């Protein structure tokens, strides 16, 4: 599960952006603006799992993300869609971690139950 939730690599982010930019062509940018644009997406997508980024792109391209279809999503919009896509996996990871960290309760024998019950009968008034 941890591997599934590992952050997307720069190559993963670049591939998702390239796919979306092909689908939503933008006006020409000079080199400085283009570099700043890529940096904005990289910052916004830091820590997002690769599978969630892929799913976000899929939802956007299918028109299932609730966005207008004429424009490339902004960095925060893309982050929000990826976060939504990863929410179930993150929830399951937390539940699994809780299970793995849980203390196992020991089985109480009938002999011990009887001993404790007898002791309570001794100290509790009738």
UniProtKB/TrEMBL annotation:
This is Uncharacterized protein. It comes from the Bacteria.
């Amino acid at each position: 599960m941890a591997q599934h939730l590992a952050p997307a690599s720069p190559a993963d982010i670049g591939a998702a952006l390239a796919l979306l930019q092909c689908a939503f062509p933008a006006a020409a940018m000079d080199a400085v603006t283009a570099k700043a644009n890529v940096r904005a997406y990289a910052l916004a997508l830091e820590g997002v799992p690769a599978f969630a980024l892929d799913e976000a792109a899929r939802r956007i391209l299918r028109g299932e993300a609730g966005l207008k279809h004429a424009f490339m999503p902004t960095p925060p919009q893309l982050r929000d869609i990826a976060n939504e896509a990863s929410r179930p996996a993150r929830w399951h990871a937390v539940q699994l971690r809780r299970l793995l960290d849980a203390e196992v309760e020991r089985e109480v024998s009938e002999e011990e139950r009887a001993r404790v019950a007898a002791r309570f009968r001794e100290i509790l008034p009738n």
